[in-house]
Write a structure and sequence with these properties.
By secondary structure, this protein is an alpha/beta fold. It has 2 domains: 295 residues, NAD(P)-binding Rossmann-like Domain (Rossmann fold); 110 residues, Dihydrodipicolinate Reductase, domain 2 (2-Layer Sandwich), CATH 3.30.360.10. Helix content is 38%, strand content 17%. The protein contains 16 helices and 11 strands. Helix 7 packs across helix 9 and helix 8 packs across helix 10. The longest helix is centred in the C-terminal third of the chain and has 21 residues. The chain is globular, with a radius of gyration of 22 Å. It starts with 14 loop residues before the first strand and ends in a 15-residue tail after the last helix.
Length: 439
């Protein structure tokens, strides 16, 4: 495909503020990680924006710059962090309580993080039943609460001298919600906020406040949140990019690696049993059936899209898929995802694959938060608005335009992401069709 003209991208001048609802394990691991990397105390492993390369042109050209050198991303030294939480702990105290990072590392950056204190959160225990805390906003209506968040956003930007902001939802999984009539139009949504409608969750209030403030928004949890017509239309109206939902970290990351391999070799699938144990705040929240239902819906959708049973009924038309999550406090943030996969091959002979992934949930999530913040800022400076499907790489349940199915294959997602970057810089898209076919 021929190269196109470069897209106009405004320079990344000034400070970029990264606002995060939920200053828990994921957020504090991200903040402390960035500070440690700034000081040369660690490497940004897992971050595509910091360590990834991108091939340009033919393989024989030998052009493969770092992504951060290819597109104009904000530098780590220009990042400023803030957020909201129902607990009053500053980032230093929250990180010690989360127990993800070694105490010595946290202490080494204490001077830079102990002054990052959470703003009062918008919180409703009807949506997260297993948590409660004192650092909560009060308001007569949900619209009042949104206006308080808008004030927080403006104040943070001014006090920290930021030229741009992004918001990444890093808070807990809310109870399962279905699309309702009040989610269809912006007018109906705002009217429902004034009436404190029960179908409007706290995460939606944050998303609304961000979009009204012209701030890009990414949803790191499986909540409905910004994935409703009212807020998608607001994003387009305000010229703001959005993406989500649910960070693709442990077990689902493995599924989006393994399932494409099974399908590529046309091996059959009889069943896929998945169970998880984790003991952090996320585990406590997901111990509630309502919140687990939201997570379960996110996890279950992956295999069906990748395997396409409608196209391959003999191989995937009748597989059994089970997902369970178990709260086990001794494990803390060190999650274990165990999978039993029953497959079949030539003449229907059965085989099995066993996966035991002992992962660190926040260690896997932190580089995703960084990448999404930098890529959303890039999208904003390129005047890209609405759903950013090219960022599906980072999510379990990627948002798509109406009428399109979500792509879950990790390798297709990565190709789409890199081809988007190539397009922005006027480079040829990689199609893997070499000129030798046409000589």
């Amino acid at each position: 495909m021929p190269a196109k003209k470069k897209s106009a991208i405004a320079p990344a001048k000034g400070k970029l503020g990264i606002l995060m609802p939920g200053l828990g394990a994921v957020s504090t691991t991200t903040i402390i990680g960035v500070e440690a990397i700034r000081r040369g105390l660690g490497q940004p492993i897992g971050s595509l924006t910091q360590m990834g390369t991108i091939r340009l042109g033919k393989r024989t050209d030998g052009r493969a710059p770092l992504i951060k050198d290819f597109v104009p991303l904000a530098g780590l030294d220009d990042l400023v962090f803030g957020g909201w939480d129902i607990y009053k702990d500053n980032v230093y105290e929250a990180a010690i309580n989360a127990g993800v990072l070694e105490r010595g590392l946290v202490e080494s950056v204490k001077d830079s993080i102990e002054n990052i204190r959470p703003m009062k959160a918008v919180f409703d225990r009807q949506f997260v039943k297993r948590l409660d805390g004192p650092n909560v906003k009060k308001g007569k209506t949900k619209l009042d609460l949104a206006e308080q968040l808008i004030d927080d956003i403006a104040r943070f930007k001014k006090e920290n001298g930021c030229s741009r902001l992004v918001m990444i939802w890093c808070a807990s999984t809310e109870v399962f919600l279905k699309l309702a009539a009040v989610h269809e139009t912006l007018e109906g949504f705002e009217a429902a906020m004034k009436k404190n409608h029960p179908a409007i969750a706290p995460s939606m209030i944050y998303a609304y406040a961000a979009l009204k403030s012209g701030v890009p928004f990414a949803n790191g949890a499986p909540n409905l949140t910004v994935d409703i017509p009212a807020l998608v239309s607001l994003a387009r109206k305000k010229g703001v990019p959005v993406c989500g939902k649910d960070f693709k970290t442990g077990q689902t990351l493995m599924k989006t690696m393994i399932a494409p391999g099974i399908k590529s070799r046309l091996l059959g699938l009889a069943g896929w049993y998945s169970t998880n144990i984790l003991g952090n705040r996320d585990g406590a929240v997901l111990d509630d059936p309502g919140s687990f239902k939201t997570k379960e819906e996110s996890k279950l959708s992956v295999l069906t899209q990748i395997l396409q049973p409608d196209l391959y009924p003999t191989l995937y038309g009748d597989f059994f898929h089970k997902v369970s999550i178990n709260y086990y406090p001794p494990r803390g943030d060190n999650k274990e995802g165990w999978d039993n996969i029953d497959i079949f091959g030539w003449l229907g002979y059965p085989m099995q694959i066993k996966i035991d992934f002992l992962c660190r949930d926040s260690i896997l999530a932190a580089p995703l938060v960084l990448d999404l913040a930098l890529f959303l800022d890039l999208a904003q400076r390129t005047k890209m608005k609405g759903i950013q499907e090219w960022l599906s790489f980072y999510f379990k349940s990627p948002m798509t335009a109406p009428g399109l199915y979500a792509e879950h294959d990790l390798f297709i997602q990565l190709m789409k992401l890199k081809n988007t970057l190539r397009h922005l810089r006027g480079e040829e898209l990689i199609t893997h069709l070499g000129n030798e076919y046409y000589d």
